[in-house]
Design a protein that fits this description.
The protein is built from four helices and no strands. It is mostly helical and 105 residues long. The protein starts with a helix and ends with a helix.
Length: 105
């Protein structure tokens, strides 16, 4: 494995608790079912509050504002751009580029 791929893999693995596929979260939940239940509870509450003004525009910044609003109670990285590779070794950055391209046409 190249140094770059190893670094990307290490960055990807840091978003999970060791030896699991449960995302590191602000509540310290290490069980996938518990985290799923918390996500539903917190995101439902945030949806009921309504979206922030920054989320009104269909832009990448608006998308990040929505993500932050919905997940801010659960994840320190909510609304932030990821640079780590996904499990399939495709960069999340590619999603950003696709989103920007789609909205520029």
């Amino acid at each position: 494995m190249s140094d770059r791929k190893a670094a990307e893999r290490a960055a990807f693995e840091r978003v999970f608790y060791p030896d699991s596929r449960v995302l590191v979260n602000e509540l310290g939940l290490r069980d996938a079912a518990s985290l799923d239940a918390a996500e539903r509870l917190f995101t439902d509450t945030r949806i009921e509050e309504g979206m922030p003004a920054a989320a009104a525009e269909p832009t990448y910044a608006g998308f990040k504002a929505i993500h932050h609003h919905l997940f801010q109670d659960l994840y320190a990285w909510a609304g932030q751009e990821r640079a780590a590779a996904s499990d399939g070794n495709k960069l999340y950055q590619e999603c950003r580029e696709c989103f920007l391209y789609k909205n520029s046409t």
